[in-house]
Amino acid sequence: MTLFFPDLNVWLALSVRGHSQNALAWAWISGLSEDTRLIFSRYTQLGLLRLLTNNTVMGDQTLKLGGAWEVYDRWLEDPRVEFYPEPREAESAYRHATKPFAAKTASQWVGDCWLLAFAASARANLVTFDRALHEFARKQGHSAIIPA
After folding, report:
1. What one-character DSSP code corresponds to residue 9?
2. For residue 114, which of 131, 139, 136 has the smallest C-alpha distance?
């Protein structure tokens, strides 16, 4: 079985009709084999709920929290989608992933490094539209793909 760990930008694109990368994300997911699993972590679950209820992100498609939970629950009804608890080794992998940024102020890399660490600990392929995160993952020797 192949595990894929979509970044928030991929989950959002898959969840919002009219998103600029919706068609690309669906083309990618439609091409996956039946033995593929897509995984949520607590971080991506929280992030999707937050983004779906954020007026700045969603505009006139902004959902109430109950509606955002319905979107998430529909994902879990898909037999290819699972919630994965935090792997035991995620903390160590996270500290390792953040080392290149130790001398810098906090930034988006705090979250991005967590995504990378979780994917590595779960032995999943990180899936992201973020080219900088993709390149960083590749340089760190991790599996990451950009849906195409």
Report:
1. H
2. 136
- Taking alpha carbons only, the member of 113, 98, 99, 110 closest to residue 144 is 113
For 85, residues 6+ apart whose C-beta sits below 8 A from its C-beta are: 42
Tokens of 11: 């989950």
Q: How many domains does the chain have?
A: 2
Each residue of 40-99: pLDDT tens digit? 999 999 999 999 999 999 999 999 999 999 999 999 999 999 999 998 899 899 999 999
pTM exceeding 0.85: yes
- Host domain of residue 9: 2-26+34-83
Angle at 129 between CA 126 and CA 135, to 5 degrees: 65
